[in-house]
Every structure is written in structure tokens, then in C-alpha cells.
Amino acid sequence: MRRQPISGPGAACAALLLATLAAAGCAHYRPLPLPPAPDLRQTPQVEVPAAEFRLPGLAPAPLPRRGLGELAVVTLAVFDNPGLAAARLQAGVAQAQMFAAGLLPDPVLSASLSGSSITTGYGLAAAEPLQALIVRGAARQAAAARARQVNLDILWQEWQVAERARELFIQARADHRLLALQRRQDAVLAVQYGRDRAAMARGDAVRTTVTNDLAALSGGEQALQQLQLDRNRARRQLKALLGLAPDARLELVGPSGLPPLTEARLRRAVATLPRRRADLLALAAGYASQEAAVRQAILAQFPGLTAGVTQGRDVEGLSSAGVDVSLTLPLFNRNRGAIAVQRATRRLLRQTYQARLDQTAGDADQAWQAANIQRREVMRLRARLPALRAAARAGAAALRQGAASAGEAAGLELNWLRAQAAAVRAAAALATDQAALRTLLGLPFRAPAPAP
Q1: How many helices (H) and strands (E) does the chain have?
Q2: How far apart are CA 256 and CA 428, in angstroms?
């Protein structure tokens, strides 16, 4: 028995189905397993392409052979931080959303079969909703603005990581110097305690003096322990920012601190904040996206139109072809709810932008005032150091000549060491304030100023 080829309405329906399947470019599913282990390195390295270096003042550069300076630490933190690597993938999501906003809806194809004793009838129809063509431009503008907002949000996250890295570098370098000064203080206190204890055994000192020495030595040892904990915590957090393993070797070198900003420079920077600071630019892009969303909602209130073509044959054998148009009448809904929501959201975003701008201007002025106060404190402490150093040297010389007691010489030495520690803490606080101020103003990153 010979097989007869399919013909008539069955062939038409089969051809329609095959054409639909052929036109559909189906995506394939590929599983993406989670990482099995931590992805931390033993040595720092820059892995982000040079084209993605967008933070003002930072650029790819060879790492120093020995030790990392402040600017190198900031650069590595921005471009090797694991959290930022995940955040940058948001840009790909935003690009995909922008691509999706530009796509037209797929046409709807339909087919039907019916039969009678006379013949077999069929119907074919293809329809395309035209509403998407009306709102497509506004939808693409909204998606493009959202993509800009995502990129600017990522840039602002990079800015925050950079500031945190600079803060940890300043703290780690200060802790390093403070540890050395505290060890010298503890050494002086230990010698003094041992000397007075021996004097008490000879009957030349009272127990109160030895007890006070021991209390001072215990306080110094506790301070040393706290400094060690602070230094360990700062270095551990810095390694995490750099994507380094906890046991990775990290050597920090060089000065920290930036030149002060004049009041005129501060005022100019505040006046140009909306054109420079990434989070304000991101809010502006979000507002532009919302403006397009409002326009899209307004365009969507117009009648929804769907147009298509039909072809068929009824069960009586009569063939027909024509055009099919359907129209949604805007009598009750008219998309008024969506329009009200989008307009309210636009007002919210506008006020949010204004509040952020006002807060930033106030925070910048407060940070500038705080930096000036801290700068005067640093100058005051540093101005006293030469006299205290001269007194400590004179005390040591007098001790060697027998013109001063060991306790007097030790007291002068401790005064000199404690004044140095106070100056180091004040300088670290000033450097942190100056870095925070530059971040508030969105100023480019730059190398630290040489220590005076």
C-alpha cells in the first residue's frame, strides 16, 4: 500500500507548525555549578581590564616590587575586591534588560480544523499587537537610563571600597608606628619597675612606688595588646578587600595623608557635585528612567490595537481571506492607575535626589570643619615634639653625669614617647578625615602627600 502525501488543510497546518518551530531560536540550558572552594590569592594582582578603570585618579600600573603604598592599595581594593566583582555583573543584567526592552512581541499564529460530510475546513490567522510599537521608544529610553544608573551605582560602590581601603591603610600604618612606640614605653616602664623593686629590697624605696610602677607597666602591656589586636583586625579587613588569603603576606609602605582643601576649593567642589559624584549621577539617571516610564504609561493609555490576517475554508468548501483588527476601548481603566503610580514615583525620586544633594553639601562642610580642627591639633602636638625630645635627651645626659635620678630621666623619656604616639594618632585621624572629605566631594584619587 502506497503512502499518500499530506495535502490540503492538513499540509497547511503542518507547514504552519514547522515554520513556527524553525523561526523560534531556542536557548539551551546549561547548568552553572557553585564554586567548591574560596577563590583567594596569596599575592595581590590587578585582574580587571584597563577599559574598566573608571574611578577618577586610578589607572592600571605595575605593582611595586617591594611593599604597597596607599594608592596601590586603593587601586587593588577597587579592582580585586570580590564583592565588587559580583556587583559588576549587575551591569550585564541591566544590559540584558535594555536588550529585552527593545524587542517586539512575537506574533500570534493560530490554526484550526473542522470537518463535515462534504469537506474538511480549516482556518489560519496571524496577529501582531501594535501597542508595543507605540511604547517601544519610551521603554528603551527607560531601560537605557536604568543601565546608566546601574553602572553609576557600581562606580559609587567602587568609591566606597576605595575610601575603606585608604582608611584601613592609614590605620594599619599608624598601628605599626604606635606598636613600636608602645614597645619602647613598656621597655622604659619595665626598667623603672625592676630598678624600684630592687631599691625597695634594699630599703631605698617604698612599696607604693613599686606598686605604681607595676600598675603603669600593666597598663602599657594592655595598651600593647590592644594595638596588636587593632593592627591584626585592620590588616585582616584590608586583605579581605584585596581578595587575599588570610595568611597572605602584605607589606605596607609609604606615607598617608592628602594636602588640605582651601575654602574656595571646597565651595567650587560643592557647587559642581551633581556633575561629578557618582551616587548623585546615578540618582539623576534613575530619575531620567522614571521620566521615560511616565511617558510610557501615558502612551499606554491609547487604545490597544492588534492587527492580523486570516485565511480559511469552511465546511461547505467556501474559501475566505481577510484582515482582522481588534481594539481595546479606553472607557474605564485608561491606564490611569499606572500613570498615577509612575508620577508618584517620579515625585519621590525627585525629592530623594534633592535630599541627597542637601545632605552631601552639609556633610562636606562638616567634614571640612572637622579636618581643620584636627589639622590644628596635629600642628599643636608636632610643635611640642622638639622641646620634649630635647628634654628627654637632656635627662638621659644628666643621668649619665649623675645630675638627675633614673626616675626623672625615665619620666622625660616617657613624656617624649607619649607625645609622639599622640601625634601619630592625630595625624592618622586627620588623614582619615581628609580622605573622607575627598570622597564626599567626589574628587579624584591622588597619591598621598609626603610627610612633613
Answers
A1: 9, 4
A2: 8
| CB atoms near residue 132 (< 10 Å) | 14
Strand partners, 126: 109, 309
277: three-class secondary structure by DSSP: coil
**Identity (one letter) of the amino acid at 284?**
A
> Three-state SS for 426?
helix
pTM: 0.78
Indicate the helix (H) or strand (E) that contains 324: strand 319-328
Cα separation of 283 and 287, whole Å? 6
Choose among 141, 193, 161, 137: nearest CA to 84: 161
- What are the tens digits of pLDDT across the range 300-317? 887 777 777 888 787 677
Residue with cell 481603566: 333
d(CA 417, CA 365): 34
The angle at the Cα of 294, spanning 290 to 295, to the nearest 5 degrees, equals: 120
Is residue 138 within 8 A of residue 294, CB to CB? The reply is no
Closest by CA to 73, choosing from 232, 257, 249, 239, is 239
Given the C-alpha cell 625615665, which residue does it identify? 410
Quick one: which of 416, 427, 426 has its CA closest to 449? 427
Taking only the tens place, the pLDDT of each residue in 119-169 is 888 888 888 777 777 788 888 888 888 888 888 888 899 899 989 999 999
Report pLDDT for 352. Answer: 94
Rounded CA separation 366/182 (Å): 33
DSSP state of 244: B
Residue type, 368: W
Alpha helices by DSSP H, listed for 248-335, are 263-271, 278-299
